[in-house]
Amino acid sequence: MIMSGAVAGAGAPVQVTGRGRRSSLTRSRIRAAWLFIAPSLIVVALIAGWPLARTIWFSFTDASLDALGDYAFIGLENYLAHDDGGWFGILAEPDWWHSVWNTLWFTAVSVSLETVLGMVVALILNAAFPGRGLMRAIILIPWAIPTIVSAKMWNWMLHDQFGVINDLLLRLGLIAAPVPWTANADTALWAAVMVDVWKHTSFMALLILAALQMLPQDIYEAAKVDGVSPVRVFVRVTLPLIKPALLVAVIFRSLDALRVFDLIYVLTSNAKETASMSVYARQQLVDFQEVGLGSAAATLIFLIIALVVVITLAAGRVRLGEDPR
Amino acid sequence: MSRLIASLAAAAGLLATTSARAVEISISCSALGKEYEICKQGVDAWAARTGNTVKIVSTPNSATERLALFQQLLAAGAGDIDVFQIDVVWTGTLGNHLLDLTAKGQAVIGDHLPAMVETSRVEGKLMAIPWFADAGLLYYRKDLLDKYKRPVPETWADLTETARLIQDGERKEGKGEFWGYTWQGRAYEGLTTNALEWVASHNGGTIVDEKGEVTIENPKAAEALKTAAGWVGTITPEGVLNYTEEEARGIFQAGNAAFMRNWPYAWALAQGGDSAIKDKVGIAPLPKGGADGRHAGTLGGQLLAVSKYSKNRDTATDLVMYLTGEAEQKRRAVEGSFNPTIVSLYSDTDIARANPFIGDLVDVFSNAVARPATATGQNYNKVSTEFFNAVHQVLSKKSDPAQALSRLDRDLKRIKRNGWQ
After folding, report:
1. Given an 8 Å threshold on Cβ–Cβ distance, is B250 in contact with A88?
2. Which of A231, A284, B294, B347 is close enough to A294 for a disulfide, judged by CB 3.0 to 4.6 Å?
């Protein structure tokens, strides 16, 4: 966000003056603009640019965590290499692709559920009812708990022998025997989705609520006068109007979900079947001390996330363009 | 004037010597069961004796996570922890960051169990001192075996059958949560130790042999894994796929299981005052894999090592020598049932009174199976991770044993492609 603002600010004056010689006033303005955005640029470069550049650099080396200073440049070998008649490197690693699939699945399912539920919650909170302020504060509690804490908490609640969830379901007669939610790969990812939805629906709701509050009331009054059904009002008026905000919320959540680590790590440890991309990268980096390979995985995560954002933005814009009829 | 300078110098000298003598040492003790408490008593005794202070740094219960934490700390060259409690399979991995204790330890190292000393060395240099020995054991409920008139199982087939019988019987009497056998099945280092026992007891080798050859793809190993996969959901709760030592103990100690595979630490807790199964527990070697199999417990245990980055290496080494010394090992054996690594303590009468099974353990330790940490060196963690993941897939019925082992064989050979080092 800081970066895009800064770039726009710096780019604008240049475009205004065009190709001709810039006046001294413009030049001093540009200088002042750079001066003003320099602190944020430096901060961004230090906390995001430098680690990123270093990670990308390490991905072309055979560095090991054990002796970080001692490494050699090996080109693309961490990504893909042909050796002894076999392919090596991350791109030839089935585990990596499995973790990519897990992460994409997790992101798609959890963000979709959060969007739908968040929308419902936001619409309810948007209506005037007594205690609305309190309700808005309460709904934020799951979001305020650190993920590692809620993951651990849910891990115990989902425990097959001591967990409260199984106890509850057993007492209600919904299941005949305790379900080991986090032990089985099939239910473990669903458990992770559930905890994520529990935690982030309120975040989604809050962003959507903010958009709902900005909507001009006169459109709704006009719709009421015309006798349009509420469902039609929602689909034809509310949804198109909050779409930009919704898109931002979805991108935010997707970025977060694509990096998912703590939740899956706490719930299922290092199990291959449920590993996310970040879990995979961490395992290479820390458990196996392969800084080179781990950095290559981290770089790929960066690229995949960038790709997903671009696709989402493009998809959003295309549909926005078709809309006005 | 000169007197003033002299007294100032003397005062400064005094300050310097006291600060050099009384220092703070940080030690990482694990906190499984009673471990933290016993460790605290030990370091406090040393602190009282030497005038230094000791800070205990808490570490995660899962061994895999603990190693990751240590690797991060040491790779950064951090001197925050002076003394590390390390697992027997970590010496090779962490060796570059540890202080060579050969000079200080040479005099006493001959008293320790040879298998444990072997795990403390890297290329002939002593990088750690053995603290306590561990091996996988079978815990059983004496009262229930009597009730159902069954002997202690000799083979895995016996165990399966007896566990099933007791489980069915107890459930019929209304104990709906009763299970036959609990162990550690989470995808972590503990599963490697469990599965190695199944494989080795069937004479299926030790994943990678001493020469560094990958040996895991064999019919006996497949048979062992098939047996274990058959327990999940029948005599073992399916949740075992996410159990570590403490979850398994939770079920057994609550009186909800007939058998448990665990380390010796669970003995003192099972016999503790608040235990539901006090005086109803027995210990035996783990069963054999069939009549021609062998009893195989994986060798575990912990060593103490000093960080190369410690600011007080000598004092830290002194603490290590104290904690691994005979008196402290004896106290730990009596109060926490931690098995000494000093051979002569196995015939100590005080220890024998507190742990009646201690005499049998010498046999268990001499038959213990070592994980292939020496053969695979720096790559041990990768080998172990591939192994426990393959086993985890078999246990969760995602793949059949033969297929999983053939894939594991391929993956291990991939890791080995340029030799293990």
Report:
1. no
2. A284
Question: In chain B, what residues touch A159 (CB-CB under 8 Å)?
Answer: 239, 247
A289 exposure class (CB count in 10 Å sphere: 0-12, 13-18, 19+): buried
Q: How far apart are CA A145 and CA B158, in angstroms?
A: 49
Residue B342: other Cβ atoms inside 10 A: 20
Residues A55 and A140 in one domain: no
**What is the number of alpha carbons within 13 Å of residue A148 lying toward its C-beta?**
0
Residues A154 and A210 in one domain: yes
| Structure confidence at residue B6 (pLDDT) | 55
Q: Is B7 on the interface with A (CB under 8 A)?
A: no
Chain B nearest CA to A267, separation (Å): 9
pLDDT above 90 (res A194)? yes
Instruction: Name the DSSP letter for residue B371.
Output: P
Contact B239 A161 (CB under 8 A): yes
Q: Are residues A58 and A205 both part of a single domain?
A: no
- Helix ranges, B173-259 (H): 189-201, 219-231, 245-253
Chain A: residue whose CA lies nearest to B242? A183
Chains A and B: how many Cβ contacts under 8 Å?
95
- Cα separation, B217 vs A189, whole angstroms: 30
Cα–Cα distance for residue pair B37/A307, rounded to 1 Å: 52
Nearest to A65 among B71, B240, B414 (CB): B71
Select from A21, A55, A86 the last residue of a domain: A86
**pTM here?**
0.79
One-letter amino acid for residue A84 of the chain: D
Answer yes or no: do A161 and B392 touch at CB < 8 A: no
Q: Copy the structure tokens of residue B190.
A: 């503990």
Domains of chain B and CATH, by start: 23-134+300-366 (3.40.190.10), 137-298+372-415 (3.40.190.10)
Q: Which amino acid is at A12?
A: A
Specify the amino acid at residue A162.
F
A223, A300: one domain: yes
Total Cβ atoms within 10 A of residue A184: 24
Query: Is the Cβ pair B96, A182 closer than 8 Å?
Result: no
Is any Cβ of chain A less than 8 angstroms from the Cβ of B96?
yes
Q: Which of A77, A155, A286, A293 is the best residue to mutate to test the B interface, defined by the most B CB atoms within 10 Å of its own CB?
A: A286
Residues of A in contact with B238 (CB under 8 A): 160, 180, 183-184
Residue B234 CA, chain-centre distance (Å), reads 27
Residues A98-145 pLDDT 10s: 999 999 999 999 999 999 999 999 999 888 888 888 888 888 899 889
Q: Which residues of A touch B382 (CB under 8 A)?
A: 288
| Residue-wise DSSP of A142-199 | HHHS-HHHHHHHHHHHT-TTT-HHHHHHHHHTS-SS---TTTSHHHHHHHHHHHHHHH
Distance of CA A212 to the CA centre of its chain: 22
Which residues from chain A sit within 8 angstroms of residue B62, using beta carbons?
Answer: 269
Q: What is the ipTM of this complex?
A: 0.73
Tens digit of pLDDT for each residue in B292-333?
A: 999 999 999 999 999 999 999 999 999 999 999 999 999 999
pLDDT per residue over A279-289, tens digit each?
A: 999 988 888 88
Range of the domain at A116: 88-322
The mean per-residue pLDDT over the stretch A179-186 comes to 82
Query: A289 and B378: CB-CB below 8 Å?
Result: yes
Model confidence at A19, pLDDT cuts 50, 70, 90, reads low
Q: How far is B92 from chain A (nearest CA, A)?
A: 11
DSSP output for A224-285? HHHT--HHHHIIIIIHHHHHHHHHHHHHHHHHHHHT--HHHHHHHTT-GGG--HHHHHHIII
